[in-house]
Design goal:
Blueprint: E1 2-7, H1 23-39, E2 44-47, H2 60-69, E3 75-78, E4 81-82, H3 88-101, E5 107-111, H4 118-121, H5 129-143, E6 149-151, E7 159-162, E8 175-180, H6 184-193, E9 196-199, H7 206-222, E10 233-235, E11 239-241, H8 245-258, H9 268-274, E12 278-280, H10 282-296, E13 301-305, H11 313-336, H12 349-368
Helix pairs in contact: 1-11, 2-3, 3-5, 6-7, 10-11
């Protein structure tokens, strides 16, 4: 199982000081957080993609390429790549380039984003969001798997004899997660292709997450990719920790109360009771995260949102120390207990390459017989 962090890259004033970081400071902070993630033993760093204030990560591959050059084992991902407003040809080429530069330490999460105005900025219609996600990914999927592509669809100019470059590393495309909070069509899409399904799992109650994950698992089996238990699932989560739970609540409350994503609504206590947000001690984070398995089953990836709501970099790095030293080692051990043998590990470039070679060997053996 993989553990890591994801960032939306928001530039938010610190409510305790009134200071807003500059865009440069926030970008550099995201890099520092990624480097810290590797230092404390986490597996994944994922960045969002936004094209509007107050967010800074408009070019995920630029940031991830820079981080790749400064890390050795950290898996680099997105949260999310906008499959609706990006040209699938550009996605194919940008992420294949990143895959080569990072020696395969790359996967990505497809999503529609949460900012409506981005659609017309890139010449698209938000009312076509689901259709764009379906058609654009169908093309991207082919671009990574076919050397020469002829294509005609509704939303972009036709392609004739087109080859995207560079080709995927070792002929193996980056693994794709399809991220969604509320759209069953996206869970269906992930199942159809046998890709991963990532449920953000930060705003919604457990019963909603359970329904979405179960839909994906059942449709994954329907399309013949394996049993429901073999489907590839990822979850998000939000945490804030201190050694003493009362200290965590006291310190985080002013950030929660005015945070753009959930401030001015339910109280901190109501929100933590109804959603996966955990504010407390490391042990409380461990217990609540382990409870995700009760409704999502045995899954492959757990990402935490930690650098949001105006929290200063120093505080976020302290959180990562606690996560790496006191939380994730326990979670690794506990999630491994009683994990059925048939549940696959999280995909990596090495595992995907091994499966591709095994399949090729089986095809050659079949041809001989």
């Amino acid at each position: 199982m993989q553990f890591g962090i994801f960032s939306v890259g928001d530039v938010t004033p610190d409510p305790t000081t009134g200071r807003t970081p500059t865009e440069r400071e926030r970008i550099k902070a995201m890099v520092a957080i990624a480097l810290k993630a590797e230092e404390v033993g986490l597996d994944v760093f994922a960045t969002g993609e936004h094209h509007n204030p107050p967010f800074v990560p408009s070019s995920p591959t630029t940031m991830l390429g820079y981080i790749a050059a400064r890390t050795e084992r950290l898996l680099l991902s997105t949260s999310t790549t906008l499959i609706t407003t990006n040209d699938p040809v550009k996605i194919a080429e940008d992420y294949a380039m990143l895959q080569h530069l990072a020696d395969g330490r790359v996967d990505l999460m497809m999503g529609r984003g949460n900012t409506g105005p981005v659609y017309p900025w890139f010449g698209q219609d938000i009312r076509q969001g689901i259709n764009l996600a379906i058609e654009n990914y169908a093309l991207l999927h082919r671009l990574w798997r076919e050397d020469v592509v002829d294509w005609e669809g509704r939303f972009r100019t036709p392609l004739q004899g087109f080859t995207s470059t560079p080709r995927p590393l070792d002929g193996v495309p980056p693994f794709v997660w399809h991220g969604s909070i509320r759209s069953p069509e996206i869970a269906e899409q992930a199942a159809y292709y046998g890709d991963g399904f990532f449920h953000n799992n930060i705003f919604w109650p457990a019963d909603h997450t359970k329904r979405m994950v179960e839909l994906y698992r059942s449709r994954y089996a329907h399309y013949g990719h394996g049993s429901p238990e073999q489907a590839i699932v990822g979850l998000g989560g939000q945490v804030f920790m201190r050694k003493n739970s009362q200290d965590a609540v006291r310190e985080f409350r002013p950030y929660f109360d005015v945070a753009p994503v959930y401030g001015h609504g339910p109280s901190l206590e109501e929100f933590t009771a109804q959603t996966p947000l955990t504010v407390g001690s490391p042990q409380q984070v461990i217990e609540k995260t382990l409870s995700f398995r009760d409704y999502a089953g045995d899954y492959q990836r757990q990402l935490f949102l930690m650098d949001h709501a105006g929290l200063p970099l120093k505080t976020v790095l302290e959180q990562l120390d606690l996560l790496g030293e006191e939380v994730v080692p326990v979670l690794r051990k506990e999630f491994a207990k009683n994990r059925p043998a048939g549940v696959p590990e999280a995909p990596t470039h090495a595992s995907l390459l091994g499966a591709a070679r095994k399949g090729a060997d089986a095809d050659r053996e079949g041809a001989r017989t």
